[in-house]
Amino acid sequence: MGVAIRADLASVPDYNIPGMAPGAILLNSNEGPLPPPPAVVEAITRAAFEGHRYPQWFSDTLVGRLADDLAVPAERIAVGCGSVGLCRDLIQAFCGPGDEVLFAWRSFDAYPVFARVAGVRARTVPLDAGHRHDLEAMLAAVTPATRVVFVCNPNNPTGTAVRGRELHAFLDRLPARVLVVLDEAYREFVDDPDVPDGIALARHRPNVAVLRTFSKAYGLAGVRIGYCVAAPAVVSAVHKVAVPFAVSRLAQAAALAALDRPEEVRARSAAIVRERRRLESLLSRDGHEVTPSQANFVWLPLGEEAAGFADSCARHGVLVRAFPGDGVRVTVGLPEENDAFLRAADRYRATPVRPRAVRMPPTSP
Ligand SMILES: *Cc1c(COP(=O)(O)O)cnc(C)c1O
Question: Please, which residues have CB within 8 angstroms of residue 312's CB and are 6 or more apart in sequence?
């Protein structure tokens, strides 16, 4: 006889921890390819000297700094333990038993997990044939039980982005009681001017919460820090449900130091965007179907060949992320890492199975 674990947790997938692969090129987690700048590492080290003291509960210094940088009042900003921490906090703050969250599928795989853990129903709407959000269909899927809608923009794992006109039309027609979480983890890699800046949008729309992170463009995935910009009432609700002191002193110091170096972040993001374009053009030249991306990764809609393609890349020393049955997501790395991936993709093409266009099946999470 063991302890009585919640029976419904059986349906929550075990975390898929990438195995240790010494020497492999890691293009499977959308991390930045470079370590943090030395000044950021120094700031983390300095903060460690005060490691015996609790951090600021609500990261006040960082919130003040973000408020200045983004021209948003401090009462509209919540800092969290990664933006996934904030996803979870928002579900916790807005949903109870019987409520629903709504999101596209495929999208970020944390959404269904957090919904299940919270005991909330997840309703999903398939992406369209271009692997994009189908906002019309999402609007039609809103029910009286819907509390939160996630719009991942650009979408992980397909890299597609929702444009301003369609997003405004969607928000104009959505019931005001429904919170829209615009997850902008990849915002810094967007180069399409028609993709709206969620923070500008959240200023005038009280039911929009925007999530940003230091994990991708800032190269701080291992440090765990992100933030939310939303109406003051939403920020207070997030504060109420947050794990106390979840954002460490080290993480707050790292984020502050990173914000002191905007040119560094811009240069790194621009280099990733250049490499993304190069990857897209070389892959399509070689006959692979690639979905145009606005993020730091590319999506190959390989359908049933996804797992085989990823295995083949792994055998050639390059780890990419397979979503079996749907496609493969490849993080844009350093030029030589991307070259290694291109060679691995080439080797796959040399084998009898060839990538082909596959319409994404409406799988459920
Ligand atoms: C990577 C990612 C995040 C960021 O997660 P952190 O917790 O900040 O590391 C959030 N949303 C999406 C869609 C992501 O892909």
Answer: 344, 347, 348, 351
Which residue, by CA, sits nearest to atom 7 of ligand 1? Answer: 82
268: left (phi over 0), alpha (psi -120 to 50) or beta: alpha
- pLDDT tens digits along 46-91: 999 999 999 999 999 999 999 999 999 999 999 999 999 999 999 9
> In terms of C-beta density within 10 A (0-12 exposed, 13-18 middle, 19 or more buried), how is residue 188 classed?
buried
Secondary structure string (H, E, C) spanning 277-292:
HHHHHHHHHCCCCCEC
Ligand 1 midpoint to CA 225 (Å): 10
Burial pattern 324-352, b for ≥16 Cβ within 10 A else e, equals: ebbbbbbbbbeeebbbbbbebbeebeeee
Across 188-201, average pLDDT:
98
The 10 Å CB-count burial string (b at 16+, else e) for 82-101 is: bbbbbbbbbbbbbbeeebbb
Is the model's pTM score more than 0.70?
A: yes
Q: 38 phi and psi, to 5 degrees?
A: -55, -35
pLDDT in tens, 5-36: 999 899 888 776 666 678 999 999 999 999 99
Q: Is 241 helix (H, G, I), strand (E, B) or coil?
A: helix
Q: 30 in ligand 1 pocket by Cβ < 6 Å?
A: yes
- Asked if residue 6 lies in contact with residue 306, where contact means CB atoms within 8 angstroms, the answer is no
Strand ordering across the sheet containing 77-80 = 77-80, 226-229, 208-213, 179-183, 146-152, 100-105, 121-126
Tokens of 17: 């921890």
Is 293 close to ligand 1, i.e. is its CB under 6 Å away? no
| Ligand 1 center–CA 12 separation, angstroms | 19
Q: How confident is the model over 213-222, as a mean pLDDT? A: 98
Atom 11 of ligand 1 has which residue's CA nearest to it?
185
Does the CB atom of residue 248 touch ligand 1 within 6 A?
no
Q: Which of 71, 70, 74 lies closest to 235, judged by CA?
A: 74
Q: Compute the distance between CA of residue 192 and CA of residue 237 in angstroms, rounded to an integer.
A: 33
Residue 286, C-beta contacts closer than 8 angstroms, at least 6 positions apart: 342, 345, 346, 349
**pLDDT tens digits for 289-318?**
999 999 999 999 999 999 999 999 999 999
Round the average pLDDT of the chain to a whole number and report it.
94
